[in-house]
Amino acid sequence: MVAEQNGFEAAPNGQGGGAGQGDGAGQGGDAGQGGEVIIKADNVSFFYGQFQALKNISVDIMADEVTAFIGPSGCGKSTFLKLLNRMHDFVPGTRLAGEIQIRGTSIYGPEADPVDIRRRVGMVFQRPNPFPKSIYDNICYGPRLVGVNRKADLDQVVERALKAAALWDDVKDKLGKSALDLSGGQQQRVCIARALALEPEILLMDEPTSALDPIATSKVEDWIRGAGMSIVIVTHNMQQAARISDRTAFFYMGQLIEFGPTLELFTSPKEERTENYITGRFG
Q1: Domain of residue 98, CATH code
Q2: Are 189 and 130 in contact (CB under 8 A)?
């Protein structure tokens, strides 16, 4: 990839934020008031060959909050999510214009290390994808790659990560069994624990419950609400966005239409397109 530097109830701890601009150059507005901006996107456009998938997106994402991306299929929300840990580097013919910073440092700058960025910014995908290994080895995979090899250290990593993902009590007596033998919801929490084992600053989640049943979905949502870390989640489920997120961004046709506190966006959207989407008039 070539980089060019240039009736909803919201989560209880949402804070004030700003709305995006209706012309598609979505802005974070006053999203930074009262907290730390952990991700800053400035005038970001993204291209697959000649096709422009994202158009002039600017937004501030706050630390220690859950930010939800909503919008119809193909609107650019997953594309933007994957830019945040440089996953598009593996796709030939792509191009980024604009800048994305994490804690004030450009992640596409000449000094940026993609491997380090992906360690700092973890990813959980739509379908559970545990490795065909034991539960223990799934969690240890990342730490071993970065040089953690002492069994005592790995034991601590596994326990800490599984507890953080609310899975330790379920699997502590069967860590040697294949992760593929677990239920779908447990497999997804193994994937969450695997990402947490590297102690990322940010966790990206691309529709992490869309393949799960309601009970498993509830457990993952409970974890997200109580995680106390910076999480950005793509979801097609607007009720889910309202339940778990502090702020919500509405994407449409590659544009960031509106961004702000979740309760405000769902109950009094500033943009007509946002209102039409959340009321089911399109999408």
Answers
A1: 3.40.50.300
A2: no
Whether residue 132 lies inside any domain: the answer is no
Using one digit for the tens of pLDDT, what is the confidence trace for 219-262?
Answer: 899 999 999 999 999 999 999 999 999 999 999 999 999 999 99
Helix (H, G, I), strand (E, B) or coil at 171: helix
Q: Within a domain: residue 162?
A: no
Place of tokens 């980024």: 96
Cβ atoms 66, 244 nearer than 8 A: yes
pTM: 0.85
What are the tens digits of pLDDT across the range 61-118? 999 999 999 999 999 999 999 999 999 998 999 999 999 999 999 999 999 999 999 9
Compute the chain's Rg from CA coordinates.
19
Q: State how many domains the chain has.
A: 1
Residue 258 lies in a domain: yes
Q: Which stretch of 1-5, 103-107, 208-212 has the lowest confidence by average pLDDT?
A: 1-5
- Residue 129 is given by DSSP the state -
Of 92, 86, 91, the C-alpha closest to 109 is 86
Question: CA-based angle 11:14:19, to the nearest 5?
Answer: 115
Element (H, E) at 224: helix 214-226
**Cα 203 to Cα 223: distance, rounded to the nearest angstrom:** 12
For residue 101, give its domain range: 2-126+200-278
Question: What pLDDT is recorded for position 23?
Answer: 44
- State the Cα–Cα distance between residues 52 and 95, nearest whole angstrom: 9
Transcribe 1-38 into DSSP letters: -EEE-------TT-----PPPTTS----TTTTTTS-EE
CA distance 76 to 51: 12
Q: Locate 118 and state its tokens.
A: 């992906």
- Residue 132's CB is within 10 A of a number of other CB atoms, namely 9
